[in-house]
Amino acid sequence: MRRFWPWILAVAAIQNFSSARVYESGHEVPAFQPQAALEIFTQVIAGEQLHSV
C-alpha cells in the first residue's frame, strides 16, 4: 500500500461512521488528489474502516 501523506491526515471513526479529511483537494477530491480518492474508495468497497495510509 502506498503512502499518500500529507494528503490523508485526519481520519475519524465513530461506530459505523467514518470520515477522512483530504488536504489540498478542494471540493472534488478525485480531481485534485486522485490517488488519495482511490485509496478511500478501495477501503470503503472492501468494507474496511477508513484509515490513513
Automatic annotation (TrEMBL):
Record key words, sorted: Carboxypeptidase, Glycoprotein, Hydrolase, Protease, Signal
Keyword Signal among UniProt keywords: yes
Gene Ontology terms for molecular function: serine-type carboxypeptidase activity
Leader sequence segment: 1-20
Gene Ontology biological process: proteolysis
Highest taxon of source: Eukaryota
InterPro entries: AB_hydrolase_fold (IPR029058), Peptidase_S10 (IPR001563)
Similarity section: Belongs to the peptidase S10 family.
Protein name: Carboxypeptidase
Organism: Jaapia argillacea MUCL 33604
